[in-house]
Design goal:
alpha+beta; five-stranded mixed β-sheet
Length: 299
């Protein structure tokens, strides 16, 4: 579609977005690509058609600092930019992916309601039914019940069914772009299987992805926080023993010849770094599957 537009509008088409540009109408595709068309080259009919097909980006004349941040995130996640869209003091990022069963009438208030549940989140719409919430400096431990309550409130207030996928805790680095793209693809594959459970965490969904979309399962999909944690031989051995003894902390501690409190300390250390609590059943299942993937030799 983009190529056809470029061929049709020729010199009036551009994909080089400039923040202060006022000569073009700007749009975003479902894949996050941003393109512009010269205002003087578009008829009213063409403009309305483009607005129905693509997500319009606000007039850059009125771009606030908030909108500039949005554009930087879009260029980082969907474009070729490797410039970090976050400040230097941001160490961790978590992505929330959501899809609506039908478009909503009042997307502005919907977005404001989402923002009220987070500390300064960035909300990026891919189209009028699909979006991403970016949380900078998230807490390591994510409270799923709080998010379900938010989702239920939004469903009640805006009369829309919401499917959500909560991503991993990620390091804020250049690998973030690849992690995002792979998680986003997992969510798209999952949509067929989460009709009943409308809010799913990455760790809960991992076994489903492994069975239904095995081609997506690679070591680089996983958070670098987890990969780095499992480079600690002592922690890796501890987790293997804990899983071997069916999550029984007392038996695992006895087998490891350590005090139960020492075992809990190792678990807490993992949770604080990765957001994964191995004492939770779904997290433990995820670790049982992820450990061989991470430690597998690639000769």
């Amino acid at each position: 579609m983009i190529e056809k537009l470029a061929n049709h509008f020729q010199m009036a088409f551009t994909s080089e977005f400039t923040i202060k540009d006022t000569n073009n109408y700007w749009f975003q595709t479902e894949d996050g690509q941003i393109f512009g068309l010269l205002k003087t080259a578009l008829s009213e009919v063409e403009l309305n058609l483009l607005r129905s097909l693509f997500l319009p980006i606000e007039d850059t004349e009125t771009n606030s600092k908030k909108n500039v941040v949005h554009i930087k995130w879009q260029q980082f996640l969907f474009g070729d930019s490797n410039d970090f869209p976050f400040s230097e003091d941001v160490e961790s990022i978590r992505f929330f992916y959501f899809r609506l069963k039908q478009p909503i009438i009042d997307p502005i208030n919907f977005e404001e309601a989402i923002k009220g549940a987070f500390q300064q989140p960035i909300v990026i719409w891919i189209n009028n039914m699909y979006g991403i919430i970016i949380e900078e400096k998230p807490l390591s431990i994510f409270d799923k019940e709080d998010f379900i309550q938010l989702s239920d409130t939004l469903t009640s207030d805006f009369l829309v069914v919401i499917y959500s996928f909560i991503g991993q805790l990620h390091k804020a680095d250049l690998f973030l772009k690849e992690k995002f793209r792979m998680e986003k693809q997992c969510f798209q594959e999952l949509l067929t299987y989460i009709e009943q459970e409308k809010t799913v965490l990455f760790y809960e969904a991992f076994p489903i992805i492994l069975v239904t979309s095995a081609h997506l399962i690679e070591k680089k999909l996983l958070s670098n926080y987890l990969i780095e944690s499992l480079e600690d031989g002592e922690l890796l051995h501890t987790l293997k023993v804990f899983l071997q003894y069916n999550l029984n902390a007392s038996l695992a501690a006895k087998r490891l010849h350590i005090h139960r409190n020492s075992l809990q300390y190792r678990f807490d250390k993992l949770t604080n770094k990765t957001g994964i609590d191995c004492r939770d059943f779904s997290n433990a299942v995820f670790l049982a599957l992820a450990i061989p993937l991470i430690t597998k030799r690639t000769d």
